[in-house]
Design a protein that fits this description.
With 208 residues, this protein is an all-alpha fold. 73% of the residues lie in helices and 0% in strands.
């Protein structure tokens, strides 16, 4: 990896890519490495190849993201198990840092002709995530932050739909999310504010 980084810094992108791809063959779940490879593919002018890697990377990153976290009920970690404490947190932090890079890469490299199908597929994934939650227990107060994968997928979808002018797809998804998480003010503020700040006042009003 160090040799690849040296080549990259010297702007010798093709040999750096060869090293990075070898590393990826050893660990095909390394989403940070996928983001790096995709970025280098961009730099050498292969946007189609970059798009494929960004798409694969985002799918892998979302798959690795926890479906649910039980903040209030989880057992306290073993204070002597430092690898579990710090290793787990590093994995979460790495995903949180890499997912936005993968989404930004898709914004730049995704062909317009493929955007509609892609965002509709992502919307279907959000719908499946919601269905798997089951009904809300009576009197329960839920927050979308308890469902990191669902939140990350919806956030990515919102940005992609805006960029590629498919905002109605995200409007429908956010309406379903707000219906599910009716007491989540942060979600309402984010969903409505995202549209209002960008001048989509009609779409923002529909979510009220």
């Amino acid at each position: 990896r160090q040799a690849a980084a040296v080549l990259e810094q010297a702007e010798r992108y093709e040999p750096a890519l060869q090293f990075y791809r070898r590393l990826l063959s050893v660990d095909v779940t390394d989403v940070a490495l996928m983001a790096k490879i995709a970025r280098l593919e961009e730099l050498v002018g292969r946007d189609a190849a970059a798009f494929d890697v960004y798409r694969q990377g985002l799918a892998t990153a979302l798959q690795q993201t926890a479906t649910r976290v039980h903040v209030a009920t989880e057992e306290a970690p073993d204070p002597d198990d430092l690898s579990a404490i710090y290793g787990g947190q590093r994995n979460v932090d790495a995903l949180q840092q890499t997912i936005p890079k993968l989404v930004e890469g898709l914004l730049v490299t995704m062909p317009e002709a493929e955007a509609g199908e892609y965002v509709r597929g992502m919307a279907a994934d959000v719908a499946r995530d919601l269905e798997q939650l089951g009904p809300v227990a009576e009197g329960a107060v839920e927050n979308i932050e308890e469902y990191p994968r669902l939140r990350a997928r919806a956030d990515a979808l919102r940005r992609l739909c805006l960029c590629f002018r498919h905002l109605p797809v995200s409007d429908e998804v956010d309406a379903r999310l707000l219906d599910r998480f009716r007491t989540d003010r942060a979600l309402a503020k984010q969903s409505i504010g995202f549209r209002a700040k960008r001048g989509f006042h009609v779409a923002a009003t529909r979510l009220l």
